[in-house]
Task: inverse folding
């Protein structure tokens, strides 16, 4: 831990100083960097080259800003792996350009580019190591593989349990259905017995009513015949009186008719 605390600021210092120089964008440095920018834009695809500034001064300032930000993050130990990867990306253009130092005709410039090329290779190796340094912690790739393996193991362990739980659940459901069917059968038997009892009671009551009707039928018939005899006797007793009354009423009506006829004759004469 102490080694990293010391080494990271030392490695980052070179990038911070280089970034400050790039932000200043001295005319001589811009003239030197313009061929590098032009060659880089020509080598890149059209859609990527459109994003890269055509002006060397602008490209240097952007690259310098990335170097300063990445150097500060690396020195302070904040997201050091990401910062190291960004710093490695800022070194690639100048390293590729200085790699062809033997094409330089001026001996002084050729030597300068060679020294810059070797220095950039050393810095690139340092930031690549820093980008892979997990500080004793598992890397993201290892964590991802570990999580994937744990998920596979959990699924493999859960499948038999799920199958067993499923079969157990089906067995419980089947047992519950059997119990319900048995209980329903018992209830149906009880309901059938109750219905049979009701039918038996109804039949007994019907037979009792029929027997009572059969027992009382002769008495009812005798009573009806007696009442019919009494009614016939009463009619026979009243018949002479009624006949006399009808005859007297007929004679009275005939007398009135004769009187009226004589009156009509007298009045006509």
Result:
């Amino acid at each position: 831990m102490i080694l990293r605390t010391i080494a990271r600021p030392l490695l980052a210092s070179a990038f911070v100083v280089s970034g400050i120089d790039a932000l200043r964008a001295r005319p001589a440095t811009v003239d030197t960097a313009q061929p590098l920018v032009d060659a880089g834009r020509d080598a890149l695809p059209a859609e990527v080259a459109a994003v890269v500034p055509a002006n060397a001064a602008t490209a240097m300032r952007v690259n310098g800003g990335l170097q300063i930000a990445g150097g500060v993050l690396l020195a302070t130990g904040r997201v050091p792996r990401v910062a190291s990867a960004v710093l490695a990306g800022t070194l690639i253009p100048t390293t590729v350009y200085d790699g062809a130092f033997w094409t330089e005709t001026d001996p002084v410039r050729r030597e300068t580019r060679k020294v810059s090329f070797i220095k950039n290779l050393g810095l690139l190796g340092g930031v690549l190591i820093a980008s892979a340094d997990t500080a004793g912690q598992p890397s993201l790739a290892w964590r991802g593989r570990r999580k994937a393996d744990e998920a596979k193991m959990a699924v493999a362990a859960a499948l038999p349990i799920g199958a067993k739980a499923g079969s157990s659940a089906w067995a419980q459901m089947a047992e519950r259905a059997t119990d319900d069917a048995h209980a329903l059968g018992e209830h149906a038997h009880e309901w059938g017995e109750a219905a049979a009892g009701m039918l038996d009671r109804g039949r007994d009551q019907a037979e009792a009513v029929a027997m009572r009707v059969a027992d009382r039928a002769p008495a009812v018939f005798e009573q009806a015949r007696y009442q019919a005899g009494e009614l016939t006797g009463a009619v026979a007793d009243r018949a002479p009186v009624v006949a006399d009354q009808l005859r007297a009423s007929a004679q009275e009506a005939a007398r009135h008719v004769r009187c009226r006829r004589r009156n009509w004759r007298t009045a006509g004469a």
